[in-house]
Design brief:
- By secondary structure, the protein is mostly beta strands.
- It contains no helices and eleven strands.
- Strands 2, 4, 5, 6, 9, 10 and 11 form a seven-stranded mixed β-sheet that branches. The protein has a four-stranded antiparallel β-sheet with strand order 1-3-8-7, with no helix packed on it.
- It is globular and about 40 Å long.
- The N and C termini lie far apart (about 40 Å).
- The mean pLDDT is about 95.
């Protein structure tokens, strides 16, 4: 079973930037979609961004224009570059892997914590 590992946690001020990474030791990412989710305390997990095997990305309305999702097959890595961070971006961020039928694969990793303060 694939074990996703997120990294890049940090605390930044509003307007700052942060880049998160996701890998999977011993597992090669295929060409199906991948994504990032986040969960703020007391809230449900929400989808932040997804990217398909052709590199086409889609974003949640709240992060459109500020976040960029990217995948690097040569490094077997998924990243989320976040700019102009807002307090409401605070939360635990998780990467996700989809099957080519669009279903989430495997279980959630530990996540990586992002804190945005004023």
């Amino acid at each position: 079973q694939v074990h996703l590992v997120e990294s890049g946690r940090g605390q930044v001020q509003t307007g700052g930037s942060l880049t998160l990474s996701c890998g999977a030791p011993g597992y090669i990412f295929g060409s199906c979609s991948m994504g990032w989710f986040r969960q703020a305390e007391g809230n449900e997990r929400e989808k932040v961004a997804t990217i398909n095997g052709d590199g086409e990305a889609s974003y949640g309305d709240s992060v459109q224009g500020r976040f960029t999702i990217a995948r690097d097959p040569t490094k077997n890595n998924l990243t989320l570059h976040m700019t102009n961070l807002k307090i409401e971006d605070t939360g635990m961020y998780y990467c996700a892997l989809y099957s080519c039928h669009g279903e989430l694969v495997g279980s959630w990793g530990q996540g990586t914590l992002v804190i945005v303060s004023s």
